[in-house]
Amino acid sequence: MQTTVTLRDVAQAARVSVSTASRALAGGGLTSRGTEIRLQRIAAELGYRPNTLARGLKTRSSRLIGLVVHNLANASFRVLAEVVQSRLRAEGYRAILCITADDPEQEAETIATLQEQRADGVIICPTGRNGTLLAALDRGGTPVIGVIRRDEAAELDCILAADPEGAYAGTNHLLELGHRRIGLIVGRQETTSGRERLSGYRRALEEAGLRFDPTLVHAGRYEPETGLAGCRQLLDRPDPPSAIFVANHESSFGVLRGLAERDIAVPDRISLLCYEDMPGFAWQRPAISVVDSGAGALAELAAERLLQRLRPGGATPSTTAREFRIGARLIQRQSCAAPSFQEA
């Protein structure tokens, strides 16, 4: 019968006190880095597994952080997960990755689970439907940082991309190439990103003296099916657009499929501009032009803001709820060109 390895066993093997072993395995600079590495190696060799819940009850800190995103198809969410986990680990915390599928019910269940597990903090891309729960969590002493989207019903720290400016720059780029009918596939309008990207698109059109045509806009859930449906709808028009701006990252995959279905060459027959960069876009032939939202910088700032709240004397939500913006930038590749026909 296998016996359970205890913290005392690790301490004896390392020839240190139990308190020193505990501090070293907790990380976060409570002991020297050399001691931490040596104790972690010995603990791994012995097969020691800390009782996180018991430790949390004793110290009132679980050292667990909830990272809540909709999916891992979105390149920004993958970057967010990698960067946040690395940054938190360096401070002695562990990230719990939670997937909600942009579903309010799953999000509410996730929030409850993180409360039960005594998470020290939460970084979340909210659905926009559980602001009351998030606000209560934040007021109750568990810092909550919103990323990518803002929940209008909760006064939370938010780290957002400059979506209005990004969508404006992308639309303006297509206008400068000579496009006048630009299809837009965008996220749900009850979300921050969906509304703000639409507003940037509209502003660019209006400044160019063009009338906003709502029939050129397809809004929907953040998923490939939205892109496929929107692409088909736009191409079936008697006056199809000469360019499509996919301002909903997950929908980009559906648009690529929709264009391939009809054997439509990019950019010879239609220009394509997407939102949020990913390695696959640079490898695509032609390489896809994008408006990049700066996911790495978003993640770094979200982690740092949360850590500031968790440090002794950290700011309280009532005095510090702030909004931070990370600049978006246009990356020009080969998927956008002047229209192949004269537009009316």
TrEMBL record:
<dbReference type="Pfam" id="PF13377">
    <property type="entry name" value="Peripla_BP_3"/>
</dbReference>
<feature type="domain" description="HTH lacI-type">
    <location>
        <begin position="5"/>
        <end position="59"/>
    </location>
</feature>
<protein>
    <submittedName>
        <fullName>LacI family DNA-binding transcriptional regulator</fullName>
    </submittedName>
</protein>
<keyword id="KW-0238">DNA-binding</keyword>
<dbReference type="Pfam" id="PF00356">
    <property type="entry name" value="LacI"/>
</dbReference>
<keyword id="KW-0805">Transcription regulation</keyword>
<keyword id="KW-0678">Repressor</keyword>
<dbReference type="InterPro" id="IPR046335">
    <property type="entry name" value="LacI/GalR-like_sensor"/>
</dbReference>
<dbReference type="GO" id="GO:0003677">
    <property type="term" value="F:DNA binding"/>
</dbReference>
<dbReference type="InterPro" id="IPR010982">
    <property type="entry name" value="Lambda_DNA-bd_dom_sf"/>
</dbReference>
<dbReference type="InterPro" id="IPR028082">
    <property type="entry name" value="Peripla_BP_I"/>
</dbReference>
<dbReference type="InterPro" id="IPR000843">
    <property type="entry name" value="HTH_LacI"/>
</dbReference>
<keyword id="KW-0804">Transcription</keyword>
